[in-house]
């Protein structure tokens, strides 16, 4: 509902230009970078921690990828492998300080924010490093053919039907209340209409952008991890009651370190997509990226107290943030006011979480 209101507002203020298929494609491509980081950040927040270094980190990793491509001409697979491994390692390094040395995550990530930005300036020597490889640029600028886009839409709808039927079967098995079949059918019909509209709109321009496809894959994997695996359930348990989870025999230190490693992986992917999209590694890449990622999580329903939140919610929050950026830019709103609006929305989202938590108590 909030997204619909924002889109209608900007559509009217831009005389319909905001709602064109071309702008919608650009909006989703822009949102994909924030969404990748937010999908990892939400697990850190669920576990009761925070990471302020993600903007600097994915800027650094994107810069490293550009340098490896331009200065060393490494094969694409090796380049991506090095950057992804480096992202995971740095993420786990941060997590190690938080989990085993018990340094507050705010301090660890604040130090990282400064250090990673300094390393990025050193790696790029303060200049923009151009990327000429068409294969590299494809992951940030490429599109999926229309036919494959429709096949993905069908597969996604079939998956939703399967999940719905499985949920009904499980609720019946354990004698829980089962929603009427017409209600489930209506939800599936609405979801199918949204998916079809999504693909048709994008195909009317050039197709589904590859970064958006990557984000959908991450959404599926992380949603499964959060709801269907022991690791995912333990993340929520740590955020809900750390001491009780530790006393139950769970290795909470390792899990927290692993969560930061997952966030490092997402920063690596975001850095690669950013460099590919810009066709360059910039010393300014990722600047203030942590604000968008953190705000996306809180706007999407993650609690500042930990223990609650979803990947889907974080991506909805990322879409809201990207819509605000895109719409205000099209309206010619000054950058300073864009930052003021986004900061105010973040404050409001956390305040609403605090108020709802107080009401529950």
Commentary on this structure:
This protein is mainly α and about 350 residues long. The chain has 2 domains: about 1-145 and about 205-350, ABC transporter involved in vitamin B12 uptake, BtuC (Orthogonal Bundle), CATH 1.10.3470; about 145-205. The chain contains 15 helices and 4 strands. It has helices at about 1-15, 20-45, 55-70, 75-100, 105-125, 135-140, 145-175, 180-205, 210-230, 230-240, 240-245, 250-280, 290-300, 310-330, 335-360; strands spanning about 130, 145, 210, 280. The strands form 2 sheets. Strands 1-4 form a two-stranded antiparallel ribbon. It has a two-stranded antiparallel ribbon with strand order 2-3. Helix 1 (about 1-15) runs parallel beside helix 14 and helix 3 (about 55-70) runs antiparallel to helix 4.
| CATH fold descriptor of the largest domain | ABC transporter involved in vitamin B12 uptake, BtuC
Count of folded domains: 2
Question: Which strand order does the major sheet show?
Answer: 1-4
Number of strands: 4
Round the Cα radius of gyration to an integer and report it: 21 Å
User: What is the straight-line distance between the termini?
Assistant: 28 Å
């Amino acid at each position: 509902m909030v997204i619909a209101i924002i889109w209608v507002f900007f559509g009217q203020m831009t005389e319909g230009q905001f709602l064109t298929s071309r702008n919608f494609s650009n909006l989703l491509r822009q949102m994909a970078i924030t969404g990748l980081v937010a999908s990892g950040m939400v697990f850190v927040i669920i576990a009761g921690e925070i990471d302020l270094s993600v903007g600097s980190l994915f800027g650094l990793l994107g810069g490293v990828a550009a340098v490896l491509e331009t200065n060393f001409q490494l094969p694409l697979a090796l380049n991506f492998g090095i950057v992804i491994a480096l992202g995971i390692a740095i993420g786990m390094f941060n997590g190690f300080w938080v989990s085993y040395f018990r340094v507050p995550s705010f301090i660890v990530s604040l130090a990282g924010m400064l250090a990673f930005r300094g390393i990025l300036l050193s790696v790029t020597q303060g200049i923009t490093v151009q990327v000429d490889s068409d294969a590299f640029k494809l992951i940030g600028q490429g599109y999926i053919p229309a036919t494959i886009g429709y096949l993905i839409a069908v597969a996604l709808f079939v998956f939703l039907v399967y999940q719905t039927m499985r949920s009904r079967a499980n609720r019946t098995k354990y004698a829980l209340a089962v929603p009427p079949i017409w209600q489930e059918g209506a939800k599936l019909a609405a979801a199918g209409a949204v998916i079809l509209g999504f693909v048709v709109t994008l195909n009317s321009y050039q197709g589904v952008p590859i970064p958006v496809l990557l984000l959908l894959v991450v959404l599926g994997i992380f949603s499964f991890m959060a709801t269907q695996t022991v690791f995912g359930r333990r993340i929520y348990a740590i955020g809900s009651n750390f001491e009780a989870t530790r006393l139950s025999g769970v290795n909470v230190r390792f899990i927290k370190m692993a969560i930061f490693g997952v966030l490092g992986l997402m920063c690596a992917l975001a850095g690669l997509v950013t460099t590919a999209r810009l066709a360059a590694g910039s010393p300014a890449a990722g600047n203030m990226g942590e604000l968008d990622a953190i705000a996306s999580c809180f706007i999407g329903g993650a609690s500042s107290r930990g223990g609650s939140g979803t990947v889907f919610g974080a991506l909805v929050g990322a879409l809201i943030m990207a819509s605000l950026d895109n719409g205000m830019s099209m309206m010619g709103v000054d950058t300073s006011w864009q930052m003021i609006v986004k900061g105010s929305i973040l404050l409001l989202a956390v305040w609403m979480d605090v108020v709802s938590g107080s009401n529950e108590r």
